[in-house]
Write a structure and sequence with these properties.
Length: 156
């Protein structure tokens, strides 16, 4: 049986499965025990899930080609002189990123990184934008006025 908790962790970390049933993050091999610890299951359950994914043409086509997105800058914004904007919005509402980017652009802000959670995978999906410098008060006010934005958090 394919365990959703294991699959969720694999997607979250960008883990792929090789032809010989090994798990990789980019070119770094990750053993079953490490994945098992992360999701609090026995390593044999991880192995069974990997075997089941390999047997499914559809799942294997996904998990043999997935790759990690890269490093998030959110936790180092202050060291870089950047800011992060964490936005909770209606995940079914189109144009959230475009509306936010348009406001930031008008205020001369350069977006260095954009990360968005998949609402199918994360219950409280958020969009995070890392921008150069500090946000101005007027830019924050405009972002708060967007109808589709439920909450806004600034990380400095």
């Amino acid at each position: 049986m394919v365990r959703p908790d294991i699959v969720r962790k694999m997607i979250q970390c960008g883990m792929r499965i090789s032809d010989d049933l090994k798990i990789y993050v980019d070119d770094v091999e990750v053993d079953y025990t490490a994945v098992a610890r992360a999701v609090d299951v026995d390593r044999r359950v991880v192995k069974q899930t990997v075997e089941q994914i390999k047997k499914s043409r559809y799942l294997y086509s996904l998990f043999s080609n997935i790759s990690p997105l890269g490093a998030s800058l959110v936790n180092v914004v202050s060291e870089l002189g950047y800011s992060a904007i964490v936005i909770e919005a209606d995940p079914k509402s189109p144009g959230v990123m475009a509306a936010v980017a348009e406001i930031l652009s008008r205020h001369g802000m350069v977006v260095r990184q954009a990360l968005a959670d998949d609402p199918e995978m994360v219950s409280d999906a958020k969009m995070t934008l890392v921008v150069e410098g500090r946000l101005s008060g007027p830019a924050i006010e405009e972002l708060n006025r967007l109808k589709m934005v439920k909450s806004l958090k600034i990380v400095k």
